[in-house]
Design brief:
This protein has 135 residues and is mostly helical. The protein has four helices and no strands. Helix 1 (2-39) runs antiparallel to helix 4 (106-125) and helix 2 packs antiparallel against helix 3 (77-99).
Length: 135
């Protein structure tokens, strides 16, 4: 019986790690789209890149908000609240950039995405907890 519990734990851990890996990848993609938009601010096609990058980022954070509001979300309540507060900031900044476009305003969105992605990647590379010794 204890072996089955350990197997179930490992299965959940693998699914969680895969989810974190996906979230990290999506955040890095959003950061890259925003960075390209910033770096090519004066180039042809800027308006489309700007729209695409901000819409992608906003959809991604909207998804995070929905997941964080789910009662079944396994994250501790204080962490969920901190992430919801951060997502509200991302929304506010996104609307500000849309209303008053300036490439420098993208920096904070790029940095937030990269830092959260880095944190998710760091939790993936942390060693799993040791299995308890069976009596």
């Amino acid at each position: 019986m204890p072996g089955k519990a350990i197997d179930a734990y490992k299965s959940v851990q693998n699914e969680t790690q895969n989810g974190r890996e996906l979230e990290s990848s999506l955040l890095n993609k959003a950061a890259l789209l925003l960075q390209i938009c910033r770096d090519q601010w004066d180039a042809e096609g800027h308006v489309e890149r700007f729209d695409d990058a901000l819409r992608y980022n906003q959809r991604l954070w909207t998804f995070f908000q929905a997941e964080l509001l789910e009662e079944s979300n396994p994250l501790p309540a204080p962490l969920r609240q901190d992430l919801l507060n951060l997502s509200a900031f991302v929304d506010k900044r996104t609307f500000e950039v849309l209303a008053y476009p300036a490439k420098e305003k993208l920096d904070v969105l790029i940095n937030i995405n990269r830092q959260i992605a880095e944190g998710l990647a760091a939790t993936q590379s942390a060693p799993p907890p040791e299995e308890p010794a069976l009596p």
